[in-house]
Amino acid sequence: MLRMLAARLGQMVFVLFGISVLVFGVFFATPGADPTARIAGRGASPEVMARVRSAYGFDRPLPVQYARMMEKLFVSRDLTSFVDHGAPVVPEVMAAAPVTLSLVLWASLFWVVFSLAIGIVSAVLRDSWVDRFFMGIGLLGLSMPVFWLGEVVNLVTQSRFHDTWLFSWVPPLGYVPFSESPLGWARALLLPALTLSVAFIGLYARVLRAELLAAMGEDAIRTARAKGAGPARVWLWHGLRLSWLSYVSLFGMDFAQLVGGGALLTEVVFALPGVGRLTYQGLNTLDLPLIMATVMYAAVFVVLANAVIDGVYALLDPRIAEGRHGR
Amino acid sequence: MRDGPWSRVWHGLGQRRGAMAALGLLGLIVAASLAAPFYAAWVGVDPFVSNVAGTTLRHGQVVDLMQPNDNPLHLGLTPLGPDWRIGEAYGLGSDAQGRDVAARVLYGGRNSLLISAAAAILCMMTATAIGLCAGYFGGWVDIVLSRMLDVLWAIPVYLLAISLSIVTVGHGLRLGPVTIGADNLLIPVIIIALVYIPYAARPLRARALSLSRAEFVMVSRGLGASHWRILTREILPNLADTLVVLAPLLMALCLLAESSLSFLSLGVQAPAASWGTIIQDGEGLLYTRPAVAILPGLMIVATVLSLNVLGDALRDTLDPKRRGRS
Amino acid sequence: MDAETLLSIEDLRLALPDGRVLLDGVSLSLARGEALGVVGESGSGKSLTAMTVMGLLPDVRSSGAVRFRARDLLMQDARAWRRLRGKEIAMIFQDPMTAFLPVRRVGAQIDEQIRLHEKLSRREARARTVRLLGEMGVPDPAAAAERFPHQLSGGLRQRAMIAMALSCAPALLIADEPTTALDVTVQAQILVLLTRLRETGAGLMLITHDMGVVAQACTHVAVLYAGVVVERGPVRAVLDAPLHPYTRALLAAMPPLDGPRPAHLPAIAGQPPAPDARPPGCVFAPRCPQVRPDCAIRPPVVRMGEQEVVCVLYAS
């Protein structure tokens, strides 16, 4: 058990290191994309270029640059933005994180509730018109670009039907902190979270239905029926118990990716000042340290979430805890 | 069923009405996009030139492309709205720069489809090479390749794509002697292909791994076949099923990624269009001329939905055991 | 039927919705305290017969009658089935590894069955679970109940499975190849356990492909071939004087229970027919060494002493 934990930890450190090298490389060592030119602007004179280069340390060898960048990101945490000279980046990311977390929490609540309901109903009524209808809707949800769906939602709720009883409660775009007004917070997040969750509802309902149907063919389910268990108990207790492993791991991955900035497009469309929108603003000003910090933050979050999923897995399936069941 | 996988695919798809409808819709979208220059010439518009001072004929009358705003204050100008006559100039209205929306949507389709198809193919080729090596050779080759995929996978797909785009946008990419211009479509193709490699490589690796332990591979190895021969003659042909199923699903993902990048102004660069850039153009007109942003989105939904339906049908056809599994 | 009879199946026929015939005339009967061995090759329909008695077959058309304590099982609704399953008729499956839910503790799974049928507290249910596990010869039953299925050996798993089947004191126990997945030494122990069970007055229906198992553990036997019961009767009578050529072939292919194993055992030539390619006459005719022209017509059931046989050789 301890050895497994140590091996897992080693792997995590390796992946984190790999990510930091990759991200650093993308931003500061992409062939043809000289960060100096990026900061100095197009057509800058050689003197300006040289000044920028030495000021940011781009004249040093890459490993030294890498070490300095990581030190600024994780140790001293005083990495400053290229654009707003002197504004530290790390606190900015930390301030944006609660917004993203709120959005993703709401969205995940919606997608878990709806996908569980739809997935179970579709599996129980498999090949009926209800099943086909739900799976068709699910596929449609999967096929919609989230930023476009967000614009359609805005069009309907902010403009075309805003003055009807149905959408008159919809607040203007933006975010309200929970500490300021819990009700305002919920209202501001409801539609963005629903929009974000649509694709996930479709995906998760389909995955759950498939896994449930596969589980229903297993011997253990036949045993449950032979014991005299009723259909509700067989599906919900035994069937879900067998089939939710892949659902849970998928959920962990997606949740982590979204909190890590995967919700960028939703945040942009609904003007929510989260980590994703911070990245987007960095894009417009070509603020490389800011973007690097957010991407790094995202990756670290995903790696940590993966470790948590592994732990949850071991709780859900005792065979994995003993390493008998390589997944 | 009879002989090769292709006849099985055709046979299976032919029996599925949904798949045939998807194939038809997809064919229609591709044909319409390919016909973009003919359409533009036919109705007589240039969708790449700003034309804010221009006029057009509507119901036999000359009208300005930029109309006085219909909001209560009459501030600013609003582009001409759609009258839904396709085949006439500005039948779907004009965008903020006085360009024909219908022609731009068709031209945008060319780029969106081209980029997503090319990215899907490039991604599958790379992923197949990685998956084959990792699955077949195993050992440290597998460990190194799999860890590299883990690293790539840990960064949210869109963030990675955005990061790669931001460093190449405006400056292009220099790979040794080769320089790819900043407005070259190859840049989004390479970026999108790269970020989806882990997605495609994992199932291919798993398949290659199980195949390389299969009896017929053991036999070839026992007969002294070279690694190259086993990989290309024994294992690769057996990956065909996985690849055929993967192709439309991957292209759907690539299309969504492309439109997202273009929406963030990081994909296709102006004045060229893609469905994503048109939605971006239409964002400012959302409440006054929603058609500009909504129409290209509908095209994306139709295309991605068709690809997903097709992918599902292919999976059901090629792997009847997994019928209905997603 | 007499009062002692627990289960009687009369001329049971099953067909798939597309018309393929799975069972084509199965008649069995089982009295209290008896053990009926249902023998046949895979595909002969022996597991289907068991699943019909449990009501676990979806989407099949059935005709004939399955009577359990004078109740026609084929006529009852889902609710009645649920009260019956696990309480009055219980089943033991071939592979206890897959039959248990892998992600829950063995004890919890046995408790569940008890609490499904009787109003007991968790504590009372667990007490019965531990007692049953102990009676089945599981060492340290309280600790074993806290284990997950994969943490027990194959033999212990099957003992736990039997404990679960017996947890509500069923009148009929159906065991589907209960020893096939086990080591030879463990097989014998499990068979002893199953024979002891008859002393409580319950009936046992033992599905197997192994005549040896029947000889060890059963009082009666029914030989199934291609969906038809070709011969049935008391075990002693059938073993001493097998009537149907198929039964004879089966017995000849069985190694002797004691004494040296012969150099080679005679095998039956050919394969049993697929469900959609069964001959209209005697189902065994294509492989039968004593085949005659009149085998082309389905032979009637003939009573010979305590035995019943379906073969033209005995038709008068």
From TrEMBL, chain A:
Gene3D superfamilies: MetI-like. Residues 97-309 form the ABC transmembrane type-1 domain. The keyword Transport applies. It is a multi-pass membrane protein. Its main location: membrane. It comes from Brytella acorum. It is found in: Cell membrane. One of its GO terms (cellular component) is plasma membrane. This is ABC transporter permease. Pfam families: BPD_transp_1, BPD_transp_1_N. PANTHER family: DIPEPTIDE TRANSPORT SYSTEM PERMEASE PROTEIN DPPB-RELATED. Belongs to the binding-protein-dependent transport system permease family. Keywords: Cell membrane, Membrane, Transmembrane, Transmembrane helix, Transport. GO terms for biological process: transmembrane transport. It comes from the Bacteria. The chain crosses the membrane at residues 12-30, 103-125, 132-150, 185-205, 244-270, 290-316.
TrEMBL record, chain B:
PROSITE patterns: ABC_TM1 (PS50928). GO terms for biological process: peptide transport; protein transport; transmembrane transport. Keywords: Cell membrane, Membrane, Peptide transport, Protein transport, Transmembrane, Transmembrane helix, Transport. The chain crosses the membrane at residues 21-42, 113-139, 151-173, 185-201, 243-266, 291-314. One of its GO terms (cellular component) is plasma membrane. It comes from the Bacteria. Signal peptide: none annotated. CDD domains: TM_PBP2. It is a multi-pass membrane protein. Residues 109-311 form the ABC transmembrane type-1 domain. It is found in: Cell membrane. Its main location: membrane. Belongs to the binding-protein-dependent transport system permease family. This is ABC transporter permease. It comes from Brytella acorum.
TrEMBL record, chain C:
Gene3D superfamilies: P-loop containing nucleotide triphosphate hydrolases. The keyword ATP-binding applies. It is found in: Cell inner membrane. One of its GO terms (molecular function) is ATP binding. PROSITE patterns: ABC_TRANSPORTER_2. Keywords: ATP-binding, Cell membrane, Membrane, Nucleotide-binding, Transport. This is ABC transporter ATP-binding protein.
